[in-house]
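Problem 12. The chain below contains 247 residues. Write out its predicted structure in token notation.
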Amino acid sequence: MTVLLAQISDLHLDGSERATRRAERVMDYLRALPHPVDAVLVTGDIADHGEEAEYEEAARILAAPFPVLTCPGNHDARPAYRKALLKEAPDQGPVNRLHHIAGTAVLMCDSTIPGRDEGRLDAQTLDWIDTQLTGLQRETPALIAFHQPPVELHHPLPDSGMLEQPGQLAALLDAHPQVVAVLTGHAHTAAASTFAARPLIVGPAVTWTLRMPWEGDRPADRDQPPGLAFHVLGDDRRLTTHFRVVL
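Solution.
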């Protein structure tokens, strides 16, 4: 069966009217679609300072009649994220969740290193990914989502904070052919590449858009509208992605 997923990333909610309105516009757009998505994936940096009030606002903005799946980014703080967004007891451990959406397994993984911009899938998370994938039926397709891209994107800003030790994840994926793609955020630019012989899709940001080196010296373009991605996973396990902006 065909699965339709939306991906948003890097909301950076900070209590400002600008950040709030941009996130609200994107979610209003998604709620109003004539054909609803099966789920929305939010790939990190939901809050800007990792404060409980920012996650309380996120919970309000992200409320929807369809599943909204989240993972943390380097601006997020695990205890406040768990308490105010997930309504769980605060905890410092990685936040990893498996979701089953229309016959597809979606693994939302925690690649954050508290206090650092770089990412890493630690041993606990890699073991968790391996266990979840091993437990799936062979015919179940899977998507893996986390925050920091595992490859260079050819801009010094995101490339200085990419996923460390990506070879560990690549080796794990080699053992699990049902993983059809990897989805990340963090870079504030829509991008497509490959990783471990699979599509790697980097979702655009809600808050501001990264200007590439060949576009000029000013990296943060705050005038661009919020962006999002639509991922269509067909019966043939082919992932097709469409990018949109919300005016």
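Discussion. The two ends are 31 Å apart (CA to CA). Students who got a different answer should revisit the alignment rule from Section 12.3.
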